[in-house]
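Hi everyone, sorry if this is the wrong subforum. Our group has a chain we'd like a structural model of before ordering constructs, and none of us has done structure prediction before. Sequence below.
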Amino acid sequence: MSDFVQQQNSICDFSSADAWVILSPIEQSIKRKIEAVGTPLKEWDIQINYGIKTGFNDAFIISTEKRNEILANCQTEEERQRTAELIRPILRGRDIKRYGYNWANLWLIYIPWHFPYQFDDSIQGASEKAEKAFKEQYPAVYSHMLQYKEPLSKRNKAETGIRYEWYAMQRWGAKYWDDFSKPKIVWAELARTGNAFAIDFSKKMVGNTGYILTVDEDKEDLLYYLLGFLNSRVMLYCLNQITSRFDENGWRWLRQFVEQLRIPRIQEINSIANIARNANSSNQTNFSKRINEEIARLYDLNENEQNYIDEKLSGY
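Answer:
Right subforum, don't worry. Here is the predicted structure as tokens:
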């Protein structure tokens, strides 16, 4: 046994800031190179937020047919326009693919706490004034929600009737609600295909099984640059080092893990952004190969290290 240990051992360097983890020499080399040039996403000027949590999807997430029915029940053109603005297209985690998504023609009835007075800070708890205004201004939507009043009222009784009205969503993104209307990277919390990040420019909402990443305005190139990295083999390898799998075929792309991924800051967004801009979910192979080559070059990964990453991610 002692001879075997002596023959198979490797020396690992530990820093006081890192969790103690046993790495082979090649894994240590990859880790050092990534850390040498990469900055954790949590230190970038970006925002990562959760999707919307309704607390009862049957009431809030509807088909195109139901949306059309609700709009047809509006009594005036003014009500119809208000109602159409309230009902927004939504992506579920399962709809999001690598470099694209398949929208399932589903819509979210977006009703914040205290709606339509959601920005009135003087309102505390469930508001009869808000419900009366909602019923008067959006009668077709109110009628739809009314049929679900009993199950809606039973949502988390510690909250219902204390902080928000029975007809409102459980979490409406009070501090980042407008980020859903910005260009954004979207992804599912759980992914069986490895990386599945896409960009949305069409102001779609995202459900509670997904996340959104936004940047400052007029930084579209940065979004594409980050998209290329997040869909790369290196980032999947890094995630695999820090996260637990929810089963042998799936990864958890939780915010606290994604924020740890190290991506190089560069003065000018390079060809990675340009390649990712032209990528799409139906023809990924060539785009992915080119992006992975560019990323390996930025991290200075040699051929053996690239092959090792591919072997660790065999099948994905």
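For your construct planning: The longest strand covers residues 210-215. The chain has two domains: 10-47+178-312, 54-153.
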